[in-house]
Design goal:
Elements: H1 9-18, E1 25-29, H2 35-42, E2 46-51, H3 55-65, H4 74-77, E3 80-81, E4 97-101, H5 123-136, E5 143-149, H6 159-170, E6 173-181, E7 192-200, E8 214-215, E9 221-222, H7 229-232, H8 256-272, E10 280-281, H9 295-298, E11 303-304, E12 314-315, H10 318-324, H11 354-363, H12 367-381
Parallel strand pairs: 1-2, 1-4, 2-3, 4-5, 10-11
Antiparallel strand pairs: 5-7, 6-7, 8-9, 11-12
Helix pairs in contact: 1-12, 2-12
């Protein structure tokens, strides 16, 4: 019997359940470094098409999924598109699930139209257009799995989300949406994101998708959100994702100049009511702040306290930044010996510079959260 159910043991539980699932297919749009790919793979789904424009993210994607989904990269990456705006939808194979963490963009709304036509000129239009083509071809996608920043709910006073939902309705989909936090899913990071799950009404007779809101210490899904969530979910610590102290290069410790600058900026911001500047965490912190794509600049949102050693705080290493999003990266091992990788876990390899790795992990989804949603999609909708 396992002594803990944490970041990696939860994945093992899901992998066992996945072995009993049918072989559904998915596409991975705005794929980044493949957070959705890992999640859908964990529930037995096969990727038949992916798209990512950033050249460095493409390097990471190919390196990490060339053995899992080799068909994507055959014939000069025929099914690994580099510009979704130039992709002919009819050339994309039929699929069951569309995964897309699309950018938040405003729509040019004249006030006379609603739904699909209002999305033209945005990247969301490309998602809708692919779905529409598949519907017209007689192979409608069963489920759309969409992710965006929490702020999408209030973007342009809610108009952006309204148009997206109207478009889904126009295409023939029912939908549910909610804001979920990664810190309730076994990763020590306070990261809120908006998720939209939509299903094709003619194929799936369902009025609501029940979102998971967390994972219990026993690995069970928590569906209700309550004020005492931190007492009900998997226990985490920042040390869960840290590499051993004696392996951390001194270059990750911020300079005296930068540390003084962080402290002075924080004092000014607090006095002006503009924010808090840097955020400092210890090994025992239950979770840390949201890691962002700008983390490579100064690491101010997540600094690890080293005062016990008489040192300035340090930034996370790229390995630790990846683990904070749920990627299994061996690196130099784990500081917290209780957390060991499970068999069958997909090992992630960093294939780019430190700067790019920080940028990519900051833009990524939190894999354990995505995996749990993927499991619920199969359970409730497939």
């Amino acid at each position: 019997m396992r002594k803990f159910v944490g970041l990696l043991t939860v994945d093992c539980i899901m992998a066992k359940k996945a072995s009993k699932q049918k072989n559904y297919t998915f596409i991975d749009l705005f794929a980044g470094i493949g957070g959705f790919h890992q999640a859908m793979h964990s529930v037995g789904m096969k990727c038949v098409f992916a798209s990512e424009w950033d050249k460095n993210a493409r390097i990471s994607y190919i390196e990490n999924y060339k053995n899992i989904s080799p068909e994507l990269f055959e014939n000069d990456c025929e099914f690994f598109n580099h510009d979704i705006t130039q992709q002919e939808p009819s050339k994309i194979p039929a699929f069951d699930v569309c995964c897309a963490g699309f950018p938040c963009q405003p729509f040019s709304i004249a006030g006379l139209r609603k739904g699909f036509e209002d999305t033209r000129g945005t990247l969301f239009f490309n998602i809708a257009n692919i779905v529409k083509q598949k519907i017209d071809a007689g192979t409608p996608p069963k489920v759309l799995f969409l992710e965006n920043v929490k702020g999408l709910k209030n973007h342009m006073k809610g108009q952006t989300l309204k148009v997206i939902l109207e478009t889904l309705t126009e295409l023939g989909y029912e939908y549910s949406y909610d804001v979920l936090n990664a810190k309730y899913f076994g990763v020590p990071q306070n990261r809120e994101r908006l998720f939209i799950i939509a299903w094709y009404k003619d194929l799936i007779d369902k009025k609501e998708f029940k979102f998971p809101h967390g994972i219990s210490p026993e690995g069970e899904t928590i569906y209700d959100l309550s004020k005492d969530m931190m007492d009900r979910v998997i226990k985490t610590k920042v040390s869960d994702i840290l590499e051993p102290d004696d392996t951390i290069d001194s270059s990750y410790t911020i300079s005296d100049k930068m540390w003084i600058g962080h402290q002075n900026r924080k004092k000014r911001n607090q006095a002006n009511g503009k924010g808090f500047g840097y955020s400092l965490f210890t090994d025992d912190s239950v979770y840390c702040s949201t890691i962002s794509a700008r983390y490579w600049k100064d690491g101010s949102e997540i600094l690890i306290d080293q005062s016990g050693k008489g040192l300035n705080p340090r930034k996370l290493t790229p390995v630790e930044a990846g683990r904070l999003q749920g990627y299994y990266i061996k690196g130099n091992g784990w500081k917290n010996k209780a957390h060991k990788p499970e068999k069958g876990e997909i090992e992630y390899h960093i294939a780019v510079t430190n700067k790019e790795a920080y940028h990519q992990f900051g833009n990524s989804v939190a894999i354990p959260l995505i995996k749990r949603i993927a499991e619920e999609i199969v359970k409730q909708l497939m």
